[in-house]
Amino acid sequence: MTKKLALWAAPLLFVAVLFYLPLGRILGLGLSSDWLQIFLQSETADAIWFTVWQAALSTIICLLLGIPGAYILYRRRFFGQRFIRALITIPLVLPTIIVAIAFSNFRDLPAIPVIIAAHVFVNYSITVRTIGGVWATMDNETEEAAELAGAGRFRTLISISLPQLKPAVVSAAALTFLFCSTSYGIILVIGGGLVHSVETEIALSAVQLLDLPKASALALFQTLLTVVAFTISENIVKTSIGIEQVDEGSPKPSIDRRDWAAVAFTVLPLLILIVSPLSLVLSKAFMFDGAFSIQNFVNLSTRGDRQLLNISVAQATLNTLRNVVISTSLAVGLGTLAAWLLSRPSKTRVQHFIQKGMDVLFLLPMGISSVVLGFGYLVSFGSGPIPLRESWLVIPLVQALMALPLVIRLVYPALLSIGNDHREAASTAGANASQTWWHIESRMIRNVILTAIGYALIVSIGEFGAASLLAYGDQATLPTVLFALISRPGQTNYGMAMAVSACLILLTLAMVFAVSLRKRPSLRQQVQKARRLFSSAR
Amino acid sequence: MQNAFKKIAIAAGIASMAVASLTGCAAAEPINHEITVVTHDSAVFDETLLAKFTKETGIKVTQVKAGDAGAMTNKLVLTKDAPIGDLFYGIDNTFASVADENKIVDGQMTAIDFGDVCFNYDKTWFSTHEQAAPTSISDLTKPEFKGLTVVTNPATSSPGMAFLAATVSVFGNSGYQQYWRALAANDVKVAAGWEDAYFTDFSGSSGAGDYPIVLSYSSSPAFEVRDNGESQTESIMDGCFRQTEYAGVLANAKNPSDAAKFIEFLTSTEFQATLPDTMYVYPAVDSVALPEAWSTWAPAASAPVGGELDIAANRKTWLENWSAILGE
User: Fold this and answer.
1) What is the predicted ipTM?
2) Which residues numbered 237-266 in B keep a CB inside 8 Å of some CB on A?
3) Residue A379: domain span
4) Residue B248 is assigned to a structural domain of this protein
5) CA distance B252 to A228
6) Which of A328, A342, A428, B222 sits CB 3.0–4.6 Å from A456 for a disulfide?
7) pLDDT per position as a tens digit, A172-204
8) Are residues B277 and B318 in the same domain?
């Protein structure tokens, strides 16, 4: 028990110092008696209503498209599958201005449908990978039996697969909802600053008007929304069926004719919502003076038109990679640890309650405005004991903080869904908790951990906005270089910015693809190996 | 048997160590002759000149970027008791009174550069459509320019705010709302930021958008010179708003005397001459010559407007009225 408490200390200390301390400071500064009045203003109410419904609608569309996508990309087998899995994650790393350029073909449409389409573009992979990661570990037999008994693919999905996938589906929905409800750049840029959500209202009141009471009141609402979303998702999951068998290593059946509906529901959104916007960006990277050219990439070796950049693109890439390594290790290490601790069976009601509390505690950083957090850092880490705001470390640390809830949301349901049987069996065989983790649990959910690593990478490469709101020195990264280029007139700068986007796209593809290329031993080999280990240990 | 547990503990401990090591840094004494200059995101210092400054004065300079002019001003207000640097560069005249009221400046603010927010139009578009280009901001409300103009949102972009102020100056407190209603009726497009307006909507830039008239700067045409030696764009020299950017020593700065030396450096002829090339703005020191492309294609506005306005005091009201007209 004491050991467990010691293990809790690391992730708790991390969120306490890097999230709750600065958040508390800034909310304290904004504390005022006008809070109630702020919520009664009609524009606040409108912003809240818009935030909730657009996030809900975006989430529903993501699920409708993501479930067939997860089936095709994780449950079937075909050539190029891993490449497509990596491809769909790219929208997550692109800075908003590039997302807006990617969607510029839709600019004549009304803003709100385009905002929702862009939210689907960015969050599609979260749904696909969260559900797919778990689906890949599910046993084929029940589904096959249902098919033999004459059930079609759709009926099998509804009556067999989905009930088992419920924790993953709910987890994916909760993540997507939170991402969409705190979306800032997409709503701002596509909406021309005329569409108001809670997040854009916070940014306007904090950054432009320094209206801290309003920003704090709205940030508090975001906290509330996160807790509500969490509670609802917990209540849905409570009644779900655990996945009985895990058979990750088994080969998946290849795609056949009966999968046509799922294929259609995967290929169409892929082409319309992912491939075509991305190709538009790539094609602009290879355009110079109205003709196909690699001139933009050649220009990247310089420092921009008229020495615009005070850092070379190569140096910025190295900074990005360094930040990515630090933040990914922290997020995956601490996140997996927290998920593992959360998934231990609770013996008493009090323990259960504490565990749920911890769960929310780690989720909250995802639901809070990065503007508010950025201001919190400014007032908390100036002088005093932690002069973090002037250190380059602040960026990877914030990135790790943002990736942490994502890692926990991915790993925790996977650990729950493998059930207690394996743990109990291992324990009977004489294994202690750590052996069970390293030899059994971690291997069974390896796919999910790889997905988590992939996401931590993505959050770090793309920066997710929070980093740009903090003050920092010459530590330019690829996204900040891109911004420096695109905020100046002239075709050289524009072309270079497009070339930097292409580099971001390729870097992400390479990293996410590399992570997915690990040879996995079959379950049988794992079990045999584990048996040997435990019997010798005994 | 305990090995694996140790592994977890070590992995987990990295976080607390990272935090702990930062705590350690705090003990270090501030080294003399080091200054931090807080700038907006677009500020660039010429490296060779900066190295020369350090060599001559022994002062090491760190730049901290703190968002756009508005975000930077508000961050400086928020941290005025423990400022994030020794001096700032880039608070403009639209935010100067905020800086004054909150007493974040130690002494005077010094003008370093200026930029003129003007409309640009795509000359190629107007010649292919055999149409006369607009010559004033009033023209933009006329039927022949319906659906041709893109502006930026004053709530989210500083040129947008500058143009809103310009309309108040030109049409008066009683007339500016009328002007915006006419613009809205003439299908003006509102973009969130300059980047979107200029590179995605404007037809005269590399983004090749659909709108031939854009709110930008008088200097922008210098960067759209094509192979034929002509700029594809030109500024409408009416209703231009002059944004003057200032530098100043921050109140409670650790090293105010070295910060003051850096402000001297910013006003030196040598540094001023780099401003058009590195930051796309005009030098505030009159005697400094402009690059050739600038004098040909990008002269400063001859009669900028809005200098008389108290923008900080009116910002909220103007924005509310503007949102009521253009908001959805």
Assistant:
1) 0.77
2) none
3) 286-533
4) yes
5) 43
6) A328
7) 898 899 989 988 888 988 888 889 999 989 988
8) no
